């Protein structure tokens, strides 16, 4: 039986492999080639070398978007994971109504980013108008914190569920032994629970990191990059370069930015996975 499975395993792998090649490898290779071209359509491309990349690195709006995205990602990753872990700790103490609270916190994750963006745009603008401050389209600080609040509200519940699963897998023997040894709740969390849930932390940090860098729909709906592109993130900058401007030179530039964006996210994600996985405890 085992020999038969090994013999015919390529047959079962083939459909998925073909789908991966057709849906990812070929489009990626073609996109990589187009990043070295000026083009209006895939069939109408003129190779120009690294000119698009030179323009991308000298594009002030692209560099500003990168800085804003990094600034947003650092704060969002920390806040989302700290709050989600705190809620997970509270909701694994067998309190009354735990399941209801878990459902309530998770529900925002089910709403689309565009819808959330417009909802929070209305809410934040109402608050700003009552306080006499400039509205989102005129206030870059409000746009920055608005994005963090919006994405935090959407993602915290999802990360909380992952942390709850991790905490529930911590062996009771370890926490009981720590309690017998006189460890405080904080010591138990720091020395016992935290090392045991590092796999959950790896997953949550990876998800929040990638979500932060590729954030698009919420950014488009909430601020649209205003005022004056100061709240424009990388994905929205690439979209505006590729679609909002006419001409072969802009398509090529947008494609080069997309390739750089992809390589950046992949590099940061792998670095994060390597850093957090090295601290995981084998159970």
Topology, pairings included?
Blueprint: H1 2-34, E1 37-41, E2 44-47, H2 51-57, H3 60-90, H4 98-106, H5 113-131, H6 140-168, H7 172-180, H8 185-196, H9 198-213, H10 217-222, H11 234-243, H12 248-277
Antiparallel strand pairs: 1-2
Question: What can you see in these coordinates?
Answer:
With 283 residues, this protein is mainly α. It contains twelve helices and two strands, in the order αββααααααααααα. The chain has helices spanning 2-34, 51-57, 60-90, 98-106, 113-131, 140-168, 172-180, 185-196, 198-213, 217-222, 234-243, 248-277; strands spanning 37-41, 44-47. Strands 1-2 form a two-stranded antiparallel ribbon. α6 (140-168) runs antiparallel to α9, α7 (172-180) runs antiparallel to α8 (185-196) and α11 (234-243) runs antiparallel to α12 (248-277).
Distinctive features:
globular, mainly alpha, 283 residues
Q: Termini, distance in Å?
A: 32 Å
Largest sheet: 2 strands, antiparallel
Order of helices and strands: HEEHHHHHHHHHHH
Percent range for helical residues? over 70%
Report the strand count: 2
- Total of DSSP H or I helical runs spanning 4+ residues: 12
* Helical/strand content category: mainly alpha
Report strand order across the widest sheet.
Answer: 1-2
Query: What are the segments in which pLDDT stays under 50 over at least 5 consecutive residues?
Result: none
Rg, Å, rounded: 23 Å
Average the pLDDT over all residues and give the rounded result: 87
Please tell me what the overall shape is.
globular
Percent strand equals under 5%
């Amino acid at each position: 039986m085992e020999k038969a499975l090994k013999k015919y395993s390529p047959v079962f792998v083939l459909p998925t492999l073909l789908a991966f090649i057709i849906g990812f490898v070929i489009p990626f290779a073609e996109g990589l080639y187009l990043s070295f071209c000026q083009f209006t359509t895939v069939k109408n491309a003129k190779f120009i070398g690294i000119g698009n990349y030179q323009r991308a690195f000298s594009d002030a709006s692209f560099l500003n978007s990168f800085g804003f995205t990094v600034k947003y990602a650092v704060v969002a990753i920390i806040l989302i994971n700290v709050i989600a872990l705190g809620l997970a700790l509270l909701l694994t103490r067998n309190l009354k109504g735990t399941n209801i609270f878990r459902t309530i916190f998770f529900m925002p994750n089910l709403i689309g980013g565009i819808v959330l963006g417009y909802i929070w745009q209305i809410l934040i603008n109402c608050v700003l108008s009552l306080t006499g401050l400039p509205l989102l389209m005129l206030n870059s600080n409000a746009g920055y914190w608005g994005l963090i609040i919006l994405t935090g509200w959407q993602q915290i519940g999802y990360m909380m569920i992952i942390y709850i699963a991790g905490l529930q897998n911590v062996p009771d023997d370890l926490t009981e032994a720590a309690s017998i040894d006189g460890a405080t709740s904080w010591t138990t969390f720091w020395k016992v629970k935290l090392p045991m849930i590092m796999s959950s932390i790896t997953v949550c940090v990876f998800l929040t990191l990638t979500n932060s860098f590729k954030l698009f729909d919420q950014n488009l709906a909430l601020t649209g990059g205003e005022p004056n592109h100061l709240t424009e993130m990388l994905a929205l900058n690439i979209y505006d370069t590729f679609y909002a401007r006419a001409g072969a030179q802009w398509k090529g530039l947008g494609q080069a930015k997309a390739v750089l964006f992809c390589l950046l996210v992949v590099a940061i994600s792998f670095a994060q996975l390597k850093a957090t996985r090295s601290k995981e405890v084998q159970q």
